[in-house]
Amino acid sequence: MPPALAAHAVEKRYRSTAALRGVDLAVDEGQLVGLLGPNGAGKSTLVKIACGLVRPSGGRAEICGHPAGSLAARARIGYLAELFRFPDWARADEVLELHQKLAGSRGGAAERSELLELVGLADARDRRVEAMSKGMQQRLGLAQALVGNPRLLLLDEPTSALDPVGRRTVRQLLEELRRRGVSVLLNSHLLSEVELVCDRVAIIASGALVAEGRPADLVKPRGVEVETASGKRVIEGAGRDDAPRIVSDLVAAGERVFGVRVLSSTLEDVYLEAVGGETS
Ligand SMILES: Nc1ncnc2c1ncn2[C@@H]1O[C@H](COP(=O)(O)OP(=O)(O)O)[C@@H](O)[C@H]1O
Ligand SMILES: [Mg+2]
Fold first, then answer.
1. Burial of 246 by CB count in 10 Å (0-12 exposed, 13-18 middle, 19+ buried)?
2. How many domains does the chain have?
3. CA 24 to chain centre
4. 243 and 112, same structural domain?
5. Mutation test of ligand 1: which of 17, 54, 79 has the most ligand atoms closer than 8 Å to its C-beta?
6. What pLDDT does 271 receive?
7. Does one domain contain both 227 and 150?
8. Counting atoms of ligand 1 from 1, which one is nearest the CA of 157?
């Protein structure tokens, strides 16, 4: 099965700005991939290329094997833009109905009810956008992106405007979507969020991919810390597998061990190293 999203050597130049400099990225079927990077790194540009809203200057992008922007590709994606605004006067149900028309979905009222239920807006189907909190609008935006049962969801900073409770709701929703086999590319500058929910993380800086992998594989061991009667010290280069031997060697040497801790870098350390101190 072709990946939900495959970007091959994708480049984008806006006049003198090189927004993307040859990015390779794949989102496999059912995977949740986090795209991290400072402001201006090229995250939104990559997502817009996957949507077919922006044409790459070089390379190519495919959705489930179809060229990005083609009808077949567009039928398989759902997109929530970084900055979106639904008409103030529209009711939740009407917003979804409009998007069903735009997407050519025949799901009808049943699809709308199911989506509102999924994003926790079942009780707000008749509420107008103007009477919704930012978090509710964001969840309506996610429901909109799911109209027509897309294979790939492209979410550009879906939680940046949300409080911690709203973020957790979105995270739980993403986990539910993964259970359903929907593939997701999630742009975010919120490391903790990506670390908690994504199968894989790609970090881009200045238009280039600088790190990629499973969060657990990206973080590196930083040694084993032991606490003995003479205080705490770190055995550099040691990992989890070395901990039992370290402790037994210390005990055999007559030391008393009060604590042992395996240290690893956080995704934040990996990120800061990868982007070379660029701030977002
Ligand atoms: N429509 C555009 N015209 C000119 N430059 C753009 C346009 N869109 C984005 N850029 C530039 O391309 C670079 C990448 O932008 P963007 O993809 O929005 O980054 P991110 O989403 O990571 O913040 C930035 O330097 C930005 O200013
Ligand atoms: Mg952006």
1. middle
2. 2
3. 16
4. no
5. 17
6. 87
7. no
8. 21
**Which protein residue has the closest C-alpha to ligand 1 atom 8?**
45
Ligand nearest to the CA of 156: 2
In a domain, 275, yes or no: no
**For the residues 236-265, what does the mean pLDDT come to?**
92
Q: Give residue 135's pLDDT.
A: 86
Task: Tell me the mean pLDDT in the region 227-246.
Answer: 92
**Percentage of the chain surpassing pLDDT 90?**
72
Q: Is residue 271 part of a domain?
A: no
Can you spell out the DSSP letters for 49-102?
Answer: HHHTSS--SEEEEEETTEETTSHHHHTTEEEE-SS----TT-BHHHHHHHHHHH
Protein residue closest via CA to atom 17 of ligand 1: 42
User: Domain range holding 20?
Assistant: 5-216
Write out the two tokens for 260: 């042992």
Q: What is the pLDDT of residue 96?
A: 98
Instruction: Supply the DSSP symbol for 128.
Output: B
pTM of the model: 0.87
> Tens digit of pLDDT for each residue in 215-227?
888 887 789 999 9
